[in-house]
Amino acid sequence: MGMFVISKRQNGDYKFVFTSRKGKTIFTSIGLKKKQDCKTMINGLAGHIHQFSFRKKSTPSGKHYFRLIKDGFVLATSRKYSTPLMLSKGIDEILKYLPEAETLDFSENDDIFKDDNKLVEQPNSL
């Protein structure tokens, strides 16, 4: 199953990513001023994904990606894929798993991994 993850950018805008069931980012939304806008867009995607279009594009270096579009507005951009087949598989994964995806909100957890740099004291062993 895929997952939406809401977070806050350094400029204060909110964004969300849709990740695969393996945890790899599939696409990232545009920046939004309010967290509620993220939630509204996620609900719209989950309930009506077939109303959105996927515009496939390529970079000059030969990588492939798509833009998620509704009514002419770009709402999200995918990660880069090495082949058109991998791009198509990414889109298929969205269509299959997005309607059942859960949402995690990490937008208020600025220091979620704060203690990772501290050494854990080990008990003395004999």
Salient structural properties:
126 residues; PH-domain like; 2 helices; DUF1508; DUF1508 domain-containing protein; YegP-like_sf
| Alpha-carbon distance between the two ends | 46 Å
Q: Sketch the major β-sheet.
A: 7 strands, mixed
| Major β-sheet strand ordering | 4-5-6-3-2-1-7
Oligomeric state of the chains present here: single chain
Average pLDDT across residues?
86
Note the beta-strand portion: 25-35%
Q: Name the helix and strand elements from N-terminus to C-terminus, one letter apiece.
A: EEEHEEEHE
Please give the count of helices. Answer: 2
* Global outline: globular
CATH class call: Mainly Beta
Judging by the overall fold, what is the CATH architecture? Roll
CATH topology: PH-domain like
Describe the structure.
It is globular and about 35 Å long. The chain has a 7-stranded mixed β-sheet with strand order 4-5-6-3-2-1-7. The chain has helices at residues 35-48, 84-97, and strands at residues 3-8, 14-19, 25-29, 53-58, 64-70, 73-78, 102-105. The protein has a single domain, classed as PH-domain like. With 126 residues, the protein is an alpha+beta fold. It comes from Galbibacter marinus. It holds the Pfam family DUF1508.
Helices and strands in order, then pairings?
Blueprint: E1 3-8, E2 14-19, E3 25-29, H1 35-48, E4 53-58, E5 64-70, E6 73-78, H2 84-97, E7 102-105
Parallel strand pairs: 1-7
Antiparallel strand pairs: 1-2, 2-3, 3-6, 4-5, 5-6
Pfam families: DUF1508
InterPro entries: DUF1508, YegP-like_sf
Protein name: DUF1508 domain-containing protein
